[in-house]
Amino acid sequence: MTGPVVLGAHVDQADVVAEAQARSMPVAQIFLGSPQSYRGPALTYPGGIPQLKADAAAAGVGLYVHAPYIVNVATANNRVRIPSRKLLQQHVAAAAELGALGVIVHGGQMGKGGDLETGFDNWRKAVDGLEAGVPVLIENTAGGDGAPARSLENLARLWDAVQSASGADSIGFCLDTCHAHAAGIPLPGLADAVRAITGRIDLVHLNDSRDAAGSGADRHESLGRGQCDPDALAAVVRDAGAPVVLETPGDAAAHLRDRQWLLERLDSPVA
Question: CA–CA separation, 204 vs 23, rounded Å?
């Protein structure tokens, strides 16, 4: 890796610029509404999207938007897939208005006995129908039955599907270390393995895990305090060569400890 690692954290949207500054970080990730609601973007930042865009630009803070967790464009269930596609489009449009660096969305689930081929094709259709004014970064998932983005094998099939869509040039990839660990994917060499499939890593979600490898449990932990191999976590950052967002627990002080932990293990500075 050459140059500093661009490091940020997921923070509350209500005071996102101040939260980023409290962490001495040049980027921040936010939700634009409830992560468990189909109601659409609902920014609580005073002055709304125009004011946040202006304040973030003035402060030099780049913004990522995380789509709601309930978005599942892969599922065969029409009552979930159709509103999920609508919700994703709403958040992508709002993120574009905000001038966000990208929108992160989970790969979804097919459920027990679900047909993964249907899931891959549903992703293709979703990308075909998406009006994306910002990059949309598909994130690998930790567990669940029939998850299109859980294993490297499934990710390869998912990536082939989305690359055949007319909107493929808007799609990128977000690599989550806790999710990979939970899915039983070895962290050593992970960035290279992912890049061999996708050709790119646009963002790293750097998280330790409370649970054992292969557990399927998506429970993030502060860096160095979980069950992920510390050297392997640092190597993912080094090898990915992409911006990094912490989704680890705690306040600004906890994230500053995570920042220091990472700095001590890299041969390059952390911005």
Answer: 18
118 part of a folded domain: yes
The encoded tokens of residue 264 equal 């001590």
pLDDT digits (tens, 9 = 90+) for 37-95: 999 999 999 999 999 999 999 999 999 999 999 999 999 999 999 999 999 999 999 99
Does residue 196 have a pLDDT over 70?
yes
The total number of structural domains in the chain stands at 1
Give the whole-angstrom CA distance, residue 36 versus residue 110. Answer: 18
Alpha helices in 188-229 (DSSP H): 190-198
pTM of the model: 0.97
CA separation for the pair 226, 219 (Å, rounded): 10
Residue 255 lies in a domain: yes
CATH code of the domain in which 170 resides: 3.20.20.150
